UniProtKB/TrEMBL annotation:
This is PilN domain-containing protein. Residues 54-84 form a coiled coil. InterPro entries: Extracell_DNA_Util/SecSys_Comp, PilN. Signal peptide: none annotated. The chain crosses the membrane at residues 21-43. Keywords: Coiled coil, Membrane, Transmembrane, Transmembrane helix.
């Protein structure tokens, strides 16, 4: 029987396998490094692009915030101007009101009634005075209610008092002024300007 020594052949096969293993290990490590580098580069680019987008959005938000602040400032100015305009329109529409009030009071105050104080607060007028009797105060309230300028007379109180050595009724009453709203008068003006269809 022939004996063949396979030890060198086996040793050679082991060396080849070891070489292949180290070669594959090196290739896998190289491939892993390449994958890591490409992944890191791509992720870095994505992060840079996202940061660039975020910076752009922040700049645009800052610009919009400035514009919003400007818009708020303009709205406040507009509101201020509108309120001034309304005050001026109110003053313009009611500038002759005092004259009308006193003329109408002169017409509506019956004989035997003496008005000693007139105070206006908005559309309400407070009348203080003396009357020869309670009936005269009632007549004054009916006259004010029937007036085209006044409405809703309200008697607060009437009490006995002495005036010029005579016994009189000291009265306190409120009456409202009947005003047309400013918007209605503006609408009526615009309606009057439009031609009839």
């Amino acid at each position: 029987m022939i004996r063949i020594n396979l030890l060198p052949h086996r040793e050679e096969a082991r060396k080849q396998r070891r070489t292949q293993f180290y070669t594959l290990l090196g290739l896998v490590a190289l491939l892993g490094g390449v994958v890591w580098f490409v992944g890191h580069t791509l992720i870095g680019q994505r992060i840079d692009a996202q940061e660039s987008s975020n910076d752009f959005v922040k700049r645009e938000i800052a610009v919009l915030d400035k514009e919003i602040a400007e818009i708020k400032r303009l709205q406040e100015q507009t509101q201020s101007l509108l309120s001034r305009k309304q005050v001026i329109e109110s003053l313009q529409s009611n500038r002759a009101e005092t004259v009308h009030i006193f003329n109408e009071l002169g017409k509506q105050v019956p004989e035997g009634v003496f008005i000693r104080s007139v105070k206006q607060s908005g559309v309400r007028i407070n009348l203080l005075g003396y009357a020869q009797s309670n009936a005269r105060v009632s007549q004054l309230m009916r006259n004010l209610d029937a007036s085209p300028i006044f409405e809703k007379p309200e008697l607060v109180e009437i009490k006995a008092a002495d005036f010029n050595r005579r016994r009189v009724g000291d009265f306190n009453l409120f009456v409202s002024i009947e005003r047309a709203p400013i918007e209605d008068s503006d609408q009526n003006k615009s309606a009057a300007k439009e031609p009839a269809k």
